Amino acid sequence: MPELQRLRPDHAPVLFTFEQENRAFFAASIPDRGDAYFADFDARHTALLTEQAAGLCHFHVLVDTDGEILGRFNLVDVADDSADLGFRMAEKATRRGLATATVLHLCTLAATEYGLTTVRAAAALDNTASRTVLTRAGFVPTGEKVQLSGRPGLSYVLSTALQV
Fold first, then answer.
1. CA angle 72–74–80, rounded 5-degree value
2. Which of 26, 80, 90, 97 is found 20 to 30 A from 17 (Cα to Cα)?
3. How far is 25 from 116, CA to CA, in rounded Å?
4. Under a CB-based contact definition with an 8 Å cutoff, are residues 151 and 125 in contact?
5. If you average pLDDT over every residue of the chain, what do you get?
6. Is the pTM of the predicted complex or chain greater than 0.90?
7. pLDDT digit string (tens) for 96-146?
8. Measured distance CA(115)–CA(104) in Å, rounded
């Protein structure tokens, strides 16, 4: 069974591989990170760990039994007992329910480990997979329309009290 792990320094090489191998797949549904992301990956990884240590974000990776990263699941912009959820799955790990199960698990951690009461998310209207994961995990559309890199999307919210 894959395991959700808090991001650590030693995840960097495997995370870099995950991002490179899935770059085209991700770019089909979310904005591409750009070449600079890969050129500056090590510095970026270190900066993320610094943000996490300060309690500003909670970064996680879904790791299979062979140590390969199957997905990223992050709680960012932590403030006032709430955070924003972001996630991405490797192409080969999709359509197996892993994203939904992991989002549910992360929302439980949000409540029990991180003291968060609200988790927000957003997904582009044409990103059916992400919208399905959010709905299956109990997120409710707020009715607020958002723009995600120029694409129309919806905002979602979840009370983590329901996850405990």
1. 175
2. 97
3. 31
4. yes
5. 94
6. yes
7. 999 999 999 999 999 999 999 999 999 999 999 999 999 999 999 998 889
8. 15
User: Which three-class secondary structure state does DSSP give residue 55?
Assistant: coil
Within a 10 A sphere around the Cβ of 137, how many other Cβ atoms? Answer: 22
Residues 6 or more apart whose Cβ sits within 8 Å of residue 32: 23, 26
Helix, strand, or coil here: 152?
strand
Question: How many residues appear in the chain?
Answer: 164
The token pair at 92 is 């080969």
How many Å apart are CA 94 and CA 103, to the nearest integer? 13
- Dihedral (C-alpha) 86, 92, 95, 99: value to the nearest 10 degrees? -30
What's the burial of 128, exposed, middle or buried (CB within 10 Å: 0-12/13-18/19+)? Answer: exposed
Residue 14 host element (H or E): helix 12-21
- Single-letter amino acid code for the residue at 138: G
Taking only Cα atoms into account, the Rg of the chain, rounded to an integer number of angstroms, comes to 15
